């Protein structure tokens, strides 16, 4: 975090490193949660709209499940690998 | 209405386990208050009074601390500096680094306002967290939401900001599938969870406190149920201590995520 060259004391203080880790953990945790909700909402809405057009009510829950599956897949792709957290921010910025 | 529930449960009400009136279980009504006064169609309620008092407390505290700052801090100024440095080192710097120091006044105000508002649930006479009424949370969320959108558009430009939300590192066919999720997550779910998290924690905490406090009184008859009343009282103490921690934690999480969102607007996260 503390982008390169911004002069933050973080890199030299243990407390600052812990604080950075905490902020990063909060960010990733809630981002993952947001992906899960957003996946279900987005594809649930698409499923509901298609289901309404073709009069198949089942497309709504199917859409939600597909959205959830896409979200889980993307979360594993992005955060599942070891060291993926650092890789997710190419400039070494750990936001 | 809290007022009503407390009246029923008060000693005068005599609503004990053997009095036949049943356990006055708290619910949604416990979060509605009769207006303290009315001006036209505007009703001024207890949560509004608490919000105003909290604003005064935060302003008065920092005014007292920094109206006449000394080079060597003493008394309230010392306390104020500790508070500001805590927000800077634990919330702002880890997310934004030194470039974000201009947001320090905003984050300090946000953190202390939420913290004091939350703490009101434990202070006698007030005993209500105004943040458990979601109407008090949304203005803060909108403030943060429009701030980080503004910062994003200003720093990255409108097309750049939208472009940077999309994870370009995934295969093209996956990208089409991901775009609706990314946009929905950023524009809807992110601010929604920011607000609901604070509201739900305060709502649940206040409800738990009410349940055990009322149960302690309800069970306190001169019989074997005194034991249950004592058990419930222990839970009151436990939940109070827990809430003391959660009040601080929720203010911390809200402010930290605000800093994180501002940071992602300052430069591309992907």
Describe it.
The complex is a heterodimer of chains A (95) and B (270). Chain A is built from three helices and no strands. Chain A is mainly alpha-helical and 95 residues long. Chain A is elongated and about 60 Å long. Chain A starts with 13 loop residues before the first helix and ends in an 8-residue tail after the last helix. Chain B is mainly α and 270 residues long. Chain B has eight helices and two strands; from the N terminus they run αββααααααα. Chain B has helices at 2-9, 46-66, 76-96, 104-119, 134-156, 158-165, 172-219, 225-266, and strands spanning 37-39, 42-44. Chain B has a two-stranded antiparallel sheet with strand order 1-2. In chain B, β1 (37-39) and β2 (42-44) form a beta hairpin. The termini of chain B are far apart. The interface between A and B is large, with 39 and 33 residues.
Summarize the topology.
The complex is a heterodimer of chains A (95) and B (270).
Chain A: H1 14-54, H2 59-79, H3 84-87
Chain B: H1 2-9, E1 37-39, E2 42-44, H2 46-66, H3 76-96, H4 104-119, H5 134-156, H6 158-165, H7 172-219, H8 225-266
Antiparallel strand pairs in B: 1-2
Features of the shown structure:
heterodimer; A: 95 residues; mainly alpha; 3 helices; elongated; disordered N terminus; B: 270 residues; two-stranded antiparallel sheet; 8 helices; 69% helix; 2% strand
Strand order in the largest sheet of chain B? 1-2
Overall body shape of chain A: elongated
Strand fraction of chain B equals: under 5%
Mean pLDDT rating of chain B: 87
Sheet having the most strands of chain A: none
| Radius of gyration of CA atoms of chain A, rounded to a whole number | 19 Å
Helical content class of chain A: 55-70%
SS elements, strand count of chain B: 2
